[in-house]
Amino acid sequence: MPKLVLIRHGQSLWNLENRFTGWVDVPLTATGEGEARAAAAKLADLKFDVCYTSALTRAQRTLQIILETNGWTTPVIRDQALNERHYGDLSGLNKDEARDKWGEEQVRLWRRSYDVPPPGGESLKDTVARVVPFYVQRILPPVMRGERVLVAAHGNSLRALCMVLEQMTPESVTTLELATGVPIIYQLNADSTVASKTVLG
Hints:
The chain is an alpha/beta fold. Helices cover 42% and strands 15% of the residues. It has 8 helices and 6 strands, in the order βααβαβαααβααββ.
């Protein structure tokens, strides 16, 4: 049965500091590297045929740790289509600072609405519009050929993939929470719908 595994990168420095990160390239923390090693152990029985990741270091490093820990030399495709949502003027700001500046309700709207972007940035809807064509054109074909595929990316780019896979509504996908460093295994039917979902938390 076709198998697709998604994993959000391990904890980054700005996750730890509660900052909006987006396309800013920040490293993993020691905790994040540990999360990646723990994920590698959980995935040790799955040898992947191809891996996809974003253009950002935190996702690439998470994937690198998983591959190196398991001694795999799997081909890796990097593409900014899988980058985190771009937070525009919020990038680098502590979330509490942002609330002080713009107000609790406005920041909540930017963070949790589907189609309201922050100033200079992307909404989740914009991120979906970027991620889904890449999924359809590049990720899904090898999965449907029976290859095992791993995608190491970001909270919002993976929300976009989950939205497609699980046929979620714009309202329901905004409440989906994805923990750092936790693999999600999807088994797909012949028509690319989800047969089963397993979260290796």
